[in-house]
Amino acid sequence: MIKMIFKQLWNQRRQNGWILLELTVITFFIFTTSVEVVRGLADYALPDGYEKENAYVLQLKEYEAHMFRYDVKEDKAKDSIFHANFNQLLLVIKGCPEVEAVAVINQNSFPGSASQTALAMYPEDSTFTPLRTVRYRTYLADGTDFIKAYGLTDAHTGELMQLPERIHEGRKVIVSASFARYMFGTIDVVGKGIGKVHNPSGKDLQEIVGVYQNFKRTDFQVGYPSIFTIDTKMKGQNPFDHFIIYRLKEGVDGNAFEEKVMNEIAPRFANTPTVIQGIESFEESLNWYNDIIGIYNHLRYTAVMLFFVLLCVFLGMTGTFWVRCRARRQDIGLMRSIGASQATITRQFMTEAWMLVIIGFLIAQPLIIHYIHGLEWSVIDLTAHYWQDSKTWLTLATDALIYILMVLIALLGTWFPVKQASKDLPAEALRDE
Q: What is the mean pLDDT of residues 176-186?
């Protein structure tokens, strides 16, 4: 049957040539429209590596000097007042019965924050090419647990991490799985040392005491190599340099607790260096960041474009195969007159449509390969263990979806008109012969 179908396709090569041209253009056009959607959805489907629900950021601001009720001329005095005031606020938040865990972090060290700090890191006793790493910083005040506050999960078990032993000794870090794999080739790196490139003397080496699952900074990004550095002493005196994050217990209403903080706790710190400016959930921070960098607008635009492309493709391909089947009404009548069943005729025509899709799909592949290799995105070599950041795997995944879609459309556009035409009596079908 396949040999007969190939012969049939060749005999009608002029008509089929135009159909193949259409299928080639459609394949390439759908690919260029959908490849970023596939990549974005794949990024979104990745686990966050932390628990965003019930997690909040307490944002602080500082009054101008003339508004303070104490002498701020001496930096030392200001520094001591700030730290005392900050620690008092931390104790108040930590003491609330609704709060499960609190942490003190450096600015931009939570998901969805506006910017990030990046360092070039190298492994101990190695000539390894420096790895550009996203750094998050936390300060270990008494009773704080940044791992529980973030909801960081262990790279080995997938369960909530525990504060590692000796973490309070200083010069300790925990690293992401992607950082460990890229730098050491394994996630079994506890006890190994890493340092900053700008200080090659080795005096700044920090010991790895834990490995967490890759931490996604936004919903539509992969978990880039990152580390959490742990400070045993708060650095800096500007409240803008520090945030307090907290995690509420299960069942606690976040809005109700926010009202409590703003109405009962914030007024107590209204005339101090540590003024509560507002509260933002991790979800709100992520939504703001996604919106401000245009992710949502890009997704909306791409989704609308893809919808119209698929609609046009569906109508165009269905119409093409419909006309093709109706134009061969006499062939169908002839096949019926020599005893071919409706199922046989339908199967032959659907096989022809399927083979046309395959040929057009394969012809489009050189164009697709040229297109995908022309695309550029950052740090692709650092995240190659994600299939969507491999151009080969991304092309294969997108191709697979397009192939399935086009086959379904072609078969649908063929099945109905052939089914209808094969019901006609042979004499009626051959009347115009």
A: 86
